[in-house]
Amino acid sequence: MGVRRFCAPLPGPKLRGVTDPILSIRDLRTWFHTEQGTARSVDGVSLDVHPGETLGVVGESGCGKSVTALSVLRLIRPPGRIEAGSQVLFEGRDLLALPDRELRAIRGNRIAMIFQEPMTALNPVFTVGDQIAEVVRVHESTSAKQAWVRAVAMLEAVGIPDPERRAKEYPHQLSGGMRQRVMIAMALVLNPAVVIADEPTTALDVTIQAQILELLAEMQRRLGTAIVLITHDLGVIAEVARRVVVMYAGEVVEESPVEALFAAPHHPYAEGLLSAVPRLGERRERLTTIPGSVPPATAWPTGCRFRDRCPYAWERCAREHPPLYRIGEGRVSRCHLAEEPERRVAHVPASEAAFGPGGVASAERRAPSESPLRDAEEGDAAGNVRPEVIP
Prior knowledge:
The protein has helices spanning 65-72, 100-106, 118-121, 128-139, 144-157, 163-166, 176-188, 206-223, 234-240, 258-263, 268-275, 315-319, 342-346, 348-355, 372-378, and strands at 23-34, 37-49, 54-58, 80-82, 87-90, 93-94, 111-114, 194-198, 226-231, 243-248, 251-257, 324-328, 331-333, 388-390. Strand 10 (243-248) and strand 11 (251-257) form a beta hairpin. It has 3 domains: 20-110 and 192-262, Rossmann fold (3-Layer(aba) Sandwich), CATH 3.40.50; 121-190, no CATH class; 264-277 and 303-390, no CATH class. It is of the alpha/beta class. Helices cover 32% and strands 20% of the residues. The longest helix is centred in the middle third of the chain and has 18 residues, at 206-223.
């Protein structure tokens, strides 16, 4: 078979010429202990963020994206708990092991976060200028006047007109797009090394969404900040990200360069997500969907967590929990198809029935010889690597 096993965990997929990661998450487990049971919302997530890159994290609601982001900055509240053995390494230090005082010096300074809903993230009783200036004063020895000047300058940098006047206004006096720009200004005012953007465009119309994404890209080019962009929108991922992590049921199920994922997704869940994206020029009687729903975090199924929704599932999927397989340069997939790619070809009709005609699983889009997992399994003869199991 050519699948090699290793005694120690391997780091995430790395592309040639890419610098060492500035942020590394290793075996992150964030569980919520409730009377109804233990919800394993994040269950063994590992990923790397490299300096200056945009990493997309995508998945449907309940997959663990936002909990992962909050865990990085230790913002999990009871009954949630980050379990022993988890690591979040930033510039060589484990954030989960730092004293609170040292973590506060990093949070909002070296690592910043843009929250999903600015109206609830911003304090309604302080002006937006005061809130940005407070970030400066907490982390730097500067006067109130100097901090205010920097706050106004940052509002101007993120494209807010008449920043002197707007800085004196309260969050409720601003539009949704302007509030999101304020959140971006607050996150970037100290030139952080990493910004985590949690669904930053969800509540905005498409025009404002495009402006916010362009603003993030421009500020990234200007400051060299790495961005972790959390979203459920694959269109956003395609527009701004270089690499993408696909999450499902608290786990990473695929990681890949964006172009490679869109050309040939490996994991059936990623395949289903792409099948559901409407395409210009295609005529469908109905939108493609993935059948079923994410199982509850208190009762993840044995074996593969996607098996009840997967068109390729067979008995092994119910029996064995799939490991992460390294299936090529910069690519990993949590699917037994990495070792048995012929089953994908055999089940193309079932896939079409499940994901709908016109999806990436359809026979018209992928002939047997075009299976990316088969290509990876053929190994050196095709010029690719054989799949490796990542413990």
